[in-house]
Fold:
Amino acid sequence: MSVSEPLERQAVISGIGQSAVGRRLGRSDIDLTIEACLDAVADAGLERDDIDGLATYPGMGLGGGGFAGPGTPEVQDAMRLRLNWHDGGGEGPGQIRAVFAACLAVAAGLARHVLVYRTVTESTAQGSGGRQGIGGAGGSMKVGGFMQWTLPYGAVSAANWLALVAQRRFHDYGLNREQLAQIPLNARRNAGLNPKAIYRDPMSLDDYLTARMITTPLCLFDCDAPCDGSTAFVVSHRDFAPDAPNPVAYVHAVGTALRGRPSWDQFRWRPGTPGRLSGSARTCDRATSSSPSSTTGSASSPSSGSRPSDSAGPVRAALSSRAASRSPWTGNFL
Structure:
């Protein structure tokens, strides 16, 4: 590895697995997690004894209402794993922070094969009633941090908070709903490849644009559906790739920066302002500096005989098909 090569390029995704996915399955979070984890380990051609790292988001039962899934100590005990490293936490660059942490752990030599999982049982936790916002059914409660500026004013979900960010991007960059629609439209196309996905019927742009508004500018199809399920990955050191039974996904770059003020109204986003687009800016800078033809933020699979760092093309078609059909988002979202 060259000194200038990003550490994350030492990692590959060698296995993927997914439990049953559905509405109100009535199964425990640990049951779903173990199903997905065993599937991922088998997909990587490994045994449980090969797993020496474990990571999740958010861990420690954070979030409530079926949001968190089991913590790493619980999964370690259930699977009888002998770990050299484990990690869980809610702060970081989104829910994928657990995958990023696993990549860095592998690169640092703290573990060789890290099992990463994300589990939700929000649909079962919801029961027969409607989906509650953060803060539950109301009443008196004391909040601090950023929530003291949101919950008292009716912004009780991530949809509300992200709607503020989206509206700011509409204003600053001219983003429109037709462009925003491409996210759920692509998710729905992926869901059509996954027999476990909840919503698999094709969705058109007109379907999106005519859906009821939830929190401007986000409509129904911008929001996730509460469901039950677990998805797991095995993150391995890249020298395992030749021995993997299936094509692996090489990690080309990750975005982990936090710059500027973390607030929709205070963040400096305007073109030319230092620190804007914190996470993606870092990804773009690092990826393009090492490979002019790179595809930023992607996991790339090089052609036969080439080094992972020499190629920045898309994931090999075979892996792309496998990943799309078992994507963690196709079952848990649209």
About this structure: Residues 158-173 form the longest helix (16 residues). Residues 273-334 have pLDDT under 50 and may be disordered.
